[in-house]
Design brief:
This is LysR family transcriptional regulator. The chain is α/β, with parallel strands linked by helices. The protein is built from nine helices and 14 strands. Helix 1 packs across helix 2, helix 1 (3-16) packs across helix 4 (60-86) and helix 5 packs across helix 9.
């Protein structure tokens, strides 16, 4: 019996909650997972799971054993990484989930530069705005733009993300430039469809008072780049992050609307599971991204 392999298989089943899910994640047959669990329970002479037709939940004994397995496997990985570190080699797979627009515009180029320094890293990047389940889907790391990270996860801030209202000079010449928040309700709004409330914008007045204004969505989309293009074509006023629109504003293709008003700031976080050992690969990548976007991001300068 390969104890370490069986321990790792056991940990995957506990975290994912099913044999089939663990088999898919480990890219092995379900029968192999079942065999390893059986060997482990026979070796320990203990029941590690409560089994149903669809899911598996660790018993009290299994939960305690899971905690010990995590520590043992993390110690093993740490020993392997320390050995690799002695040879100054950073290598192996990294599966990372990134927001689509922020990922393409900023994280992707950063990863390309990171690979120049560490060419033996094998990246798998998922450009998607959905919130992935890091454990069940096997991600080492996720980049998320959010108010606060999920309390079940560990997070490190990468950058501050600011938003502005903007429109093309042609649109403002035709429809007029809003002079107050109430004016926004008479304009065509270009709205990010995955926002929590697609029918209102919330802004802070110059005095710092939060106000909520009803908008008239003329166009909704889940892509920041699409909304940028629509704004540049004069389709309406867009609410977009500066990391998307900074270049268009600098070049005069868009103008900031109501510059004295501000949206609440969000942060971009590097997020990883509490139960996962933070490998040297992941630690190095996070440090690289923090240094890359340290202080005021270049798109806000």
């Amino acid at each position: 019996m390969d104890k370490f392999t069986n321990m790792e298989t056991f940990v995957r089943v506990v975290e994912i909650g099913s044999i089939s899910g663990a088999a898919d994640r480990m890219n092995i047959a379900k029968s192999a997972v079942s065999r390893r669990l059986k060997e482990l329970e026979e070796h320990l002479n203990a029941q590690l799971f409560h089994r149903t037709t669809r899911t598996m939940h660790a018993t009290e004994t299994g939960t305690e054993y899971y905690k010990h397995c995590l520590r043992i496997l993390e110690d093993l990985r740490e020993a392997e990484e320390m050995t690799s570190q002695a040879h100054c080699v950073l290598k192996g797979p990294l599966k990372v989930a990134v927001p689509s627009t922020f990922g393409v515009l900023h994280i992707g180029p950063a990863i390309n530069d990171f690979l120049q320094e560490h060419p033996q890293i094998e990246f798998e990047l998922d450009f998607n705005d959905r919130q992935v389940d890091l454990i069940q889907e096997g991600y080492d790391l996720a980049i998320r733009i959010a108010d606060l990270p999920d309390s079940t996860l560990l997070a490190r801030k990468i950058a501050t993300v600011r938003h502005v209202l903007c429109a093309s000079p042609e649109y403002l010449q035709t429809h007029g430039s809003p002079e107050s928040l109430s004016d926004l309700s008479h304009h065509q709004a270009l709205v990010y469809s995955l926002s929590k409330d697609a029918s209102h914008w919330r802004l802070n007045t110059p005095e710092g008072k939060l106000q909520k204004v009803k908008i008239k969505p003329a166009l909704k989309g889940s892509s920041g780049e699409f909304l940028l293009s629509a704004a540049e074509k004069g389709m309406g006023i867009a609410h977009l992050p500066t990391f998307v629109v900074h270049q268009a504003i600098r070049e005069g293709r868009l103008e900031v609307v109501l510059p004295g008003y501000a949206f609440g700031e969000l942060n971009a976080y590097a997020i990883y599971p509490q139960t996962r050992h933070l490998s040297r690969r992941v630690r190095t990548l996070i440090d690289f991204l923090v240094a890359r976007f340290e202080g005021t991001p270049y798109w806000d300068k």
